[in-house]
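Here is the promised in-class demo. Please do not try to memorize the tokens; focus on the logic of going from shape to residues.
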């Protein structure tokens, strides 16, 4: 398509490079781009012949005096890759002087149009994909699963393939600035296939629905570990150290995309995750998943009384106690490792753990139900702090 904006771009770029005045006409032979503003919007008679015959026409000064809206020069058809005549481009000047650069001008005009069309196609595809993902994540998209599958197919995605949601974020990068360039780098990874549906989300991260060959949890882990490894190869050192991946479970069907995304988003928003870990899997965070599924009434009724006990027992030190238990549970009750991570003495960790056990009357190390309860108490306390 040849519009006035592209036509003026052609005129400006050719004139700046070659110094000759350029007129660009649409398929109706109306000048829509020119170095002479007064000529824009006027009819060019020779251009009409050029467009009609798809041929080059030269105009001498004597010829120009007999024609409407025409000056001496050469007029050439602008032809698209599929052979359609889009318009014409004319060079003002004596034909003998401008004839040698005519092919260059015609080629430049057609190249600029091709580039503009490629960019327009890119932005149309990106906007269509962003809208498509928005609909996938909606509780009520207003379209059937079959309609969604057909929409995906038109964009080149086989929606029957299994995928898992993966949120990719950079610590310290709270908005979308720079994520377009990051996604471009990610797409260069040999593990990122054309069936990986990826967009930059306005929330300030990248969302990739990663195609899976197999859907067992351990297979998902292997696929995403390979993906992470290859993505890191295309990042600079700072981004390598700050990037994090949050992977949701696989859920079948079109509605499964939203569920998988919700799994990943819950981890992304969690403040109870280890800060020194870069790759998280929803099926490895079942306790938090269970906590997120609890109704507010159940959280208040079951967990809040335990938190009040901790607050009464530890006072202003309740946060230290909760974080100590969190690290201790994550480290499998290895006291020395926990102490090193928290820059504490080992005896301090032991003391806090014993005090929590006595306060809550639980034994998370020796009783699986108490272990689950302790994790839920930690999730609830950190959730309240976040709020």
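The designed amino acids, position by position:
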């Amino acid at each position: 398509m040849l519009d006035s904006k592209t036509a003026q771009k052609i005129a400006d770029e050719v004139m700046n490079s070659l110094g000759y005045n350029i007129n660009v006409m649409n398929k109706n032979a109306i000048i829509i781009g020119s170095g002479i503003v007064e000529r824009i919007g006027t009819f060019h008679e020779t251009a009409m012949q050029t467009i009609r015959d798809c041929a080059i026409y030269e105009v001498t000064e004597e010829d120009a005096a007999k024609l409407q809206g025409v000056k001496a020069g050469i007029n050439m058809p602008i032809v698209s890759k599929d052979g359609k005549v889009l318009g014409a481009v004319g060079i003002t000047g004596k034909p003998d002087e401008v004839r040698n650069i005519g092919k260059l001008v015609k080629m430049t005009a057609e190249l600029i149009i091709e580039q503009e069309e490629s960019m327009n196609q890119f932005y149309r595809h990106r906007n269509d994909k962003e809208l498509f993902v928005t609909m996938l994540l909606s509780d009520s998209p207003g379209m059937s699963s079959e309609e969604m599958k057909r929409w995906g197919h038109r964009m080149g995605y086989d929606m029957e393939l299994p995928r898992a949601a993966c949120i990719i974020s950079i610590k310290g990068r709270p908005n979308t600035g720079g994520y377009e360039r990051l996604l471009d780098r990610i797409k260069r990874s040999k593990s990122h296939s054309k069936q990986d549906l990826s967009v930059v989300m306005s929330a300030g991260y990248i969302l990739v629905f990663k195609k899976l060959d197999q859907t067992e949890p351990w297979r998902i882990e292997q696929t995403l570990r390979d993906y992470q490894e290859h993505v890191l190869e295309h990042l600079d050192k700072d981004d390598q150290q700050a990037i994090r991946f949050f992977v949701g479970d696989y859920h079948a069907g079109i509605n499964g995309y939203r569920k998988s995304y919700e799994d990943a988003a819950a981890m992304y928003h969690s403040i109870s995750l280890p800060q020194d870990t870069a790759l998280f899997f929803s099926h490895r965070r079942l306790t938090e998943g269970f906590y997120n599924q609890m109704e507010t009434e159940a959280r208040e009724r079951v967990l809040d009384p335990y938190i009040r006990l901790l607050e009464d027992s530890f006072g202003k030190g309740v946060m230290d106690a909760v974080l100590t238990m969190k690290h201790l549970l994550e480290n499998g009750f290895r006291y020395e490792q926990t102490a090193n991570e928290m820059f504490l003495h080992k005896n301090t960790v032991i003391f806090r753990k014993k005090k929590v056990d006595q306060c809550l009357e639980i034994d998370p190390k020796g009783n699986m139900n108490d272990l689950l309860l302790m994790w839920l108490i930690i999730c609830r306390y950190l959730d309240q702090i976040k709020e």
